[in-house]
Design goal:
By secondary structure, the chain is mainly α. 92% of the residues lie in helices and 0% in strands.
């Protein structure tokens, strides 16, 4: 697991919490901010996933060579 995967998951979780807090308080602003953080976290996690996949394939290619 790389830092983008970890940071992405943290952002995603924080975003979900902020969204729920916004719903609980009736704050559309916090709901929107939470949704934005969640989306940014998902993107960062996906970047990390892609990096891991590239690394995994590169490692496999070097083992096969």
């Amino acid at each position: 697991m790389n830092k983008d995967q970890v940071k992405g998951r943290v952002k995603e979780a924080v975003g979900k919490i902020e969204q729920e807090a916004g719903k609980a308080t009736g704050s559309l602003k916090h709901q929107a901010k939470g949704l934005g953080k969640e989306a940014a976290g998902k993107i960062q996690k996906n970047v990390g996933d892609a990096r891991e996949e590239v690394k995994r394939q590169d490692d496999a290619q070097h083992r096969d060579s």
